[in-house]
């Protein structure tokens, strides 16, 4: 069975990062971050509305969009390594991934979480279950 789950995560993370820094998405905010040498891109707790602060939602979204892409890349390499060595992804990881994706789908329904990552998480779950069933069959023989 061809293992591609890690590569899907790597490519998704890379696309997220590249789209995030492009002028079509958050390029303007990313240039502001770069001008500050990525140090102190917001005012932290002073922006918190409970402390009478005013959040800059565009900077907040830009940061998390790019940061999430960067986080997916090493996770993808880890999943790819696990798939190559053990030929399956641990059940706990798949369920954790699915829960995180479902939270993302709930929070931002019209996004890549819904159209790309949710089908991928469900596919990983079915793939894992199919692999377990095949292994049980082989053990019986």
Please describe what this structure looks like.
With 141 residues, the chain is mostly helical. It folds into two domains: 1-87, no CATH class; 90-141. It has helices at residues 5-21, 27-35, 57-86, 91-107, 112-140. The protein is elongated and about 65 Å long. The relative contact order is 0.14. The model has no long low-confidence stretch (mean pLDDT 84).
Annotate the secondary structure layout.
Layout: H1 5-21, H2 27-35, H3 57-86, H4 91-107, H5 112-140
Helix pairs in contact: 1-3, 4-5
Integer-rounded radius of gyration: 19 Å
Q: Estimate what percentage of residues fall within beta strands.
A: under 5%
- Helix fraction bin: over 70%
Query: What is the averaged pLDDT score?
Result: 84
**Multimer state:** single chain
**Low confidence ranges:** none
Order of helices and strands: HHHHH
Q: Would you report the number of β strands?
A: 0
Number of H- or I-type helical stretches: 5
N-C termini distance: 20 Å
Overall 3D shape: elongated
Q: How many domain modules?
A: 2
Structural class: mainly alpha
**Sheet bearing the most strands, described?**
none
Keywords:
single chain; 141 residues; mainly alpha; 2 domains
Short recap of the structure:
The chain has about 140 residues and is mainly α. It has helices at about 5-20, 25-35, 55-85, 90-105, 110-140. Helices cover about 70% and strands about 0% of the residues.
